Amino acid sequence: MIARRDLAVRVAARTDLSPTCFRIALATPEPLAAAPGQFAMVACGEGFDPLLRRAFSIAGVARREGHTLVELMVKEVGRGSALLRRAPLGAELRLLAPLGNGFTLSPGEGGPLALVAGGIGLPPLLFAAERLAAQGVAFDLYLGAATAAELLEAERCRRAAAAAGGELVCATDDGSAGEAGLVTAALERRLETGRRYARVLVCGPNPMLRALARLARERKLDAELSLEEPMGCGVGVCLGCVVELADGRMVPSCKEGPVFPASRLAARWSE
Questions:
Q1: Domains, the chain, ordered by start
Q2: How many C-beta atoms lie closer than 10 Å to residue 206's C-beta?
């Protein structure tokens, strides 16, 4: 377990990725380690406005020129994310990280790994893809979005998959890029042709997570899902992100997740 830290950070860079999504790099002189699938709670404004921090999956951590750069990818959906998108370079914020439990990145038996990202579910899987590529672990990356304009970091994903000897499969709901239809369907088509995976790592909207949980149950796949439950504190105190497990227990996603084996989740996730 990597110990969490509450750090003062500054906005070092920001780039628009799509009409709704952007990448932001937060810099701190302090060292910080994180695993793919872990997340951060970010204070998006000064003082107590807004009162609660916002939870974002970590897309990467790098140590450069005496500073740690924490990369986040954010979709602007409300006041907190809007403030981050408009924060000037050099603005000082606070970041609590790393939080939660990440993906299992070790090689598995029976084939490469499959990474499946839907929309803004990409950040933890891009982090995983680049970590796996550096470790020489084979994987295919499935990248889905509603439209071509919302297909995030496709070229960066392609480079990571190619470095591991794998394939990038893109899919859009409207067929404007890659294969037409849901990214889960693109994965299922390849499974039907005999493609085998040792483990499937998934992050995206809840309907996509449920579809992957069903697929994992039907095909007896080892799957890990990164849940996107609303979080108020990030440390298991507020209980705003509880999820039901297969044994009937209710647990805080921020503390026991956000990554869960599909087999641990309640049956409703795979119905």
A1: 5-99 (2.40.30.10), 113-270 (3.40.50.80)
A2: 13
CA atoms within 13 A on the CB side of 75: 15
Contact 14, 25 (CB under 8 A): yes
User: What b-and-e string marks burial along 132-158, b requiring 16 or more CB atoms within 10 Å of the CB?
Assistant: bbeeebbbbbbbbbeeeebbbbbeebb
Phi, psi angle pair for 98, to nearest 5°? -85, 150
pLDDT of residue 86: 94
Comparing C-alpha atoms, which of 105, 187, 196, 191 is closest to residue 142?
A: 187
Using alpha carbons, select from 258, 260, 253 the residue that is nearest to residue 237.
253
What is the pLDDT at residue 248?
96
| Residue 113 identity | L
Cβ partners under 8 Å of residue 148, min gap 6: 172, 176, 177
Instruction: Give the distance, in angstroms, between the CA of residue 89 and the centroid of all CA atoms in the same chain.
Output: 24
3-state secondary structure of 227: coil
pLDDT of res. 144: 98
Amino acid, single-letter form, for residue 149: A
Residue ranges in the chain whose pLDDT is less than 70: 1-2
| Cα 102 → chain centroid | 9
Q: Supply the pLDDT for residue 81.
A: 95
